[in-house]
Design a protein that fits this description.
Number of strands: 0
Shape: globular
CATH topology of one domain: MetI-like fold
Strand content: under 5%
Largest sheet: none
Radius of gyration: 24 Å
Order of helices and strands: HHHHHHHHHHH
Number of helices: 11
């Protein structure tokens, strides 16, 4: 005779079932892309026809994909660099300046995360047309800086807030000017967060679609190229192979960003 399960055990089993169901619902559609990318058929359906690498091999000689990839990499590098530089500046002034103006700038910098991407895209399209720039690579960079800025500000603000202000105050007492205090005393302790902010900003820009859709000129980014190819059934296996590679790179970059972010408490504890 076995004892009946207690209410706490029942809740634990229910919670475990909920977690498993949630993970399957969240990641099963994503897992299907790598599976079908190795399928020897243009149809994304079961049963699988066989294993092949021809879809990956066809990526190497595709000039359109290469052009879109280079375009996305250039835009992501520039946008992430500018967004990280602005994020470091805004977050430092917010934490150490502690003025109403710096707090206002910090709040406005984080505001775009609450605005729908469609609204941001339409607003930026109107702006670039008014100033004569028009849809172009430069316009996409401007839009992606706006999209990535909240991420960099939030990460750097948290890091600067975790650094004891006594360090900056001690440097100031020894005669160091504000910029020297920032460069020699505070910034070296924040480098892991800078790397994490840049990595996440790069990934955000590289994968961004909505703003790029409104601002792209004659040179599409990689997400726009993938979207355009979905109209052609024969291109679907190549698109899934490309999506698998992007997914793998994204996982690596997110892991790097998370490792950099987790280094911060250890450094703080080791001071």
């Amino acid at each position: 005779m076995t004892a009946a399960a207690s209410p706490s055990e029942d809740r634990g089993h229910l919670l475990g079932f909920y977690v498993v169901a949630y993970i399957v619902f969240l990641y099963l559609p994503v897992a299907l892309i790598p599976i079908f990318s190795f399928n020897d058929s243009i149809q994304a359906a079961f049963p699988l026809k066989g294993f092949t690498l021809q879809w990956y091999a066809s990526l190497a000689g595709n000039a359109a994909i290469a052009g879109a990839l280079v375009n996305s990499l250039v835009i992501a590098l520039v946008a992430a660099s500018v967004a990280t530089l602005c994020g470091v500046t805004v977050a430092y002034l917010d934490v150490h300046g502690q003025t109403r103006f710096s707090a206002l700038v910090s709040g406005l910098s984080r505001l775009p995360i609450l605005i729908p991407g469609v609204i941001v895209g339409i607003a930026l399209l109107i702006l670039v047309n008014l100033i004569g720039l028009g849809p172009s690579r430069t316009a996409i960079v401007m839009g992606h800086v706006l999209v990535c800025l909240p991420t960099t500000v939030v990460i750097m603000r948290g890091r600067f807030a975790a650094i004891p202000k006594t360090i900056a105050e001690a440097a100031s007492d020894l005669g160091a000017r504000e910029f020297l205090v920032f460069r020699k005393a505070v910034l070296p302790l924040a480098w892991p967060a800078v790397g994490s902010a840049f990595t996440l900003a790069f990934l955000t820009s590289f994968d961004e679609f909505i703003v790029a859709f409104f601002l792209a000129g004659t040179e599409p980014t990689l997400p726009l190229y993938i979207w355009s190819q979905l109209r052609f059934p024969k291109s679907l296996p190549v698109v899934m192979a490309l999506g698998t590679l992007i997914l793998a790179v994204s996982v690596v970059l997110v892991t790097v960003a998370e490792l950099l972010r987790r280094r911060q408490p250890r450094m703080a504890a080791g001071r």
